[in-house]
Design brief:
The complex is a heterodimer. By secondary structure, chain A is mainly alpha-helical. Chain A has eight helices and no strands. Chain A has helices at residues 2-14, 25-30, 35-64, 73-95, 97-103, 114-125, 130-158, 170-185. Chain B has three domains: 35-89, 3-methyladenine DNA Glycosylase II, Chain A, domain 3, CATH 1.10.15; 98-193, Alpha-Beta Plaits, CATH 3.30.70; 194-279, Alpha-Beta Plaits. The chains are: A mainly alpha, B alpha+beta. Chain A binds chain B through residues 59, 63-64, 67-69, 72, 75-76, 79-80, 83, 86-87, 90-91, 93-94, 97, and chain B through 3, 6-7, 10-11, 14-15, 18, 21-22, 25-26, 29-31.
């Protein structure tokens, strides 16, 4: 149990997908203008991450490995993720049309979110068990949502600030992201080496 | 079994399973959209000009179907499209405002406006303006590189031989694209029946205007005094026509010493009251 907790903390905070591994920066900058939409994006991405973690693990262990088709991992994982994103989009359009409109193009873009594919590939490389993969994926999704929500909070406050013209928009967002990444490095000591 | 066939079977069956799953899901989570949206979109000009204020023709159709935008919102489409949208939506067509067309508010062509430098860079108005305000002596004038012509979606603008953009009133739909494209704010939209315009944007004092351009407004106030309907006023050394009062009588055109007021259809005529020869 402590091992799983450590794994969760590791993937959520210490090795945060956005701020330590620098995966999924596109939605991180694109959808972090409002806390509400960023949380919606975080939940959607977390869902896709966990589901794709589960499905890719099953596919890998029950189809790819027995048939010695490991070299097909990438394409199978991409197919899985694309299907799941489509599914999430349909559910969202039906149940939360407002959130669907707010996320706009970034929802289908989860398909190409490298954090999702990165998670599936990493879980395979680290030889995680099924439970470990789920915890790892959940931690990754929570970490992604956390980074997104923190960034959205900062950017909401920054709207009122007097920023020099040259730094407005994406420039200040990238600088903020850099400082946040440095702050997240401080968590490294939590993990026993 | 060879790995090739195995991988083919594997991918094929996975694709099949996922595809069927999605097909079932799309039936279960189908969202009914208003059939009016497609019908309205079909009658729109589909140039996605954005003149209505929506993000494109599709977005406009959605907004109309929800009743958030008026049926007369499509400016390029004009009256005909308005009638058809009203028919589709089953409502009375909203009154159209008078059609607007673009008007170039600068008369400084090659003949009348002098250059202070030669610009040899990128043939783009914005780039030229970036190079210390453009090559023209008058910094308020048209830089004559045709960003407006490139922006026009309807082929209504062209650069004349004299070097100024010309508006084809028949083709112009008043979509505002050229107005946005001009870095000098030289193009305005005017009601199509309004025929008298001051083709100058310079707010410099008279002598400074004349130094560079022989057809620029010098703010002499003669038009203001001549106007019988109080429709033309000089503000900041520049005359401007109030279209709500103007009667197209043309008195101001007659008295303008530099000929910067144009009556529709007539070319700019430089009158000889002022010596336009300069150093």
């Amino acid at each position: 149990m402590p091992k799983l907790l450590l794994l969760f903390i590791s993937s959520a905070v210490v090795n945060n997908f956005v701020l330590a591994r620098f995966l999924g920066n596109c939605p991180f900058l694109g959808v972090s203008k409002e806390i509400k939409t960023s949380l919606g994006m975080g939940v959607a991405t977390t869902f896709v991450m966990v589901m794709s973690g589960i499905v890719t693990w099953l596919l890998n262990h029950y189809i790819l490995i027995p048939f010695e088709l490991e070299y097909m991992q990438t394409i199978v994982f991409i197919l899985t993720i694309a299907t799941l994103v489509q599914f999430v989009e349909m559910v969202m359009k039906k149940n939360t049309p407002a959130l669907h409109r707010a996320l706009g193009i970034f929802l289908p873009l989860i398909t190409t979110n490298c954090a999702v594919l990165g998670l599936a590939v990493m879980a395979v490389r680290e030889n995680y068990s099924f439970i470990e993969t789920v915890v790892f994926a959940l931690g990754g999704g929570v970490g992604f949502s956390l980074a997104l929500a923190l960034m959205a909070g900062i950017r909401e406050d920054m709207k009122e600030d007097l920023i020099p013209e040259a730094f407005r928009g994406p420039a200040i967002a990238l600088i903020t992201a850099g400082i946040m990444a440095m702050a997240f490095m401080g968590f490294t000591g939590i993990l026993p080496s | 079994m060879s790995p090739l066939i195995l991988s083919l079977i594997c991918m094929g069956s996975l694709g099949l399973v996922f595809g069927l799953g999605l097909a079932l899901a799309s039936r279960k989570f189908a969202v009914e959209s208003d059939p009016h949206i497609d019908e309205i979109e079909a009658v729109l000009p589909k140039v996605n000009c954005g003149a209505c204020g929506a993000a494109g023709c599709r977005a406009f159709a959605e907004a109309v179907s929800r009743g958030e935008m008026p049926t007369n919102g499509c400016i390029p489409g004009g009256g005909a499209v308005t009638d058809r949208i009203a028919q589709i939506m089953g409502v009375a067509a909203d009154e159209m405002e008078e059609r607007k067309v673009a008007q170039v508010m600068c008369g400084g062509d090659y003949e009348h406006a002098k250059l202070r430098s030669l610009y040899d860079g990128l043939q783009d108005c914005r780039a030229a303006v970036g190079a210390s305000g453009g090559p023209k002596g008058c910094v308020y004038g048209c830089v004559r590189l045709g960003n407006c012509v490139k922006a026009c979606l309807f082929g209504a603008l062209k650069l004349s031989e004299e070097g100024l953009p010309e508006v084809d009133e028949k083709k112009c739909t008043g979509c505002n694209k050229c107005v946005e494209a001009c870095p000098k704010d030289i193009i305005e939209l005017r009601p199509v029946s309004m025929g008298v315009h001051v083709r100058c944007r310079s707010i410099e004092k008279g002598p400074q205007v004349r130094k560079w351009c022989s057809v620029g407004c010098i703010g002499c106030m003669r038009c203001e005094k001549a106007c019988p309907s109080d429709a033309i006023h000089v503000l900041n050394n520049l005359a401007g026509v109030d279209y709500s009062k103007c009667t197209n009588c043309g008195k101001c055109v007659e008295v303008c010493p530099v000929g910067c007021i144009e009556q529709q259809g007539k070319a700019i005529i430089v009158r000889n009251a002022i010596n336009t020869k300069s150093n």
